[in-house]
Amino acid sequence: MDFLKNKFTLFGLIVFTISILIIVITLFSSNNNNSANNDEYATSGGILLGDPNAPVTIVKFTDYQCPSCASFTLGPGKQIFREYVDTGKANFIYRNYPFIGDESFQAAEAALCASDQDRLKDYDEIIYVNWNGQNKGTYSEKNLITMAELLQLNVNSFSECMSSDKHIKNIQKDIDDGKKLGIKSTPSVLIDGELILGTKSYGDYRVIIERALGN
Fold this sequence. Notes:
single chain, alpha+beta, Glutaredoxin, globular
């Protein structure tokens, strides 16, 4: 009887262990699939800066009237560029997710018009430096053109771009992809498909980037 009892106990342990392994493998596979799906949607549009072949891809979904987005861009975002994008360890994709108001959308258009002149990063920063509250006229067309002048862009080309609405479809694609990713707030940052909501410290982002690099 003791032999049979021990036999059934051993069998039970084996079944329990196999069940745990199945659960772990399923969760691991699910996380990998989610990360892959996230990466697919996150990188299917936007403007890429840095080495396209860099081992890590960082994606930012932003609203230009979002104070937390300003904090990210002027804080940890700059450090990420210095340590990872400028050194070829990562590339960075800008994507728009305007939802706060009309000025959000207009500022997004302006940023993409600046991108046409290869000045997206600079314009992205100057927009946030001049942020002064939501829907207060800060991002009127006149003010956005003034920012272009301060950066010494070709103002005629910039103004024509703003008037043409040429980037509306690109912005709408960003919004659509953001919804597929489950984004409901900004900033939302993806590091190789891993979604990070809200602004974190540079150290937090650094840990995730280093992990993505295999360090």
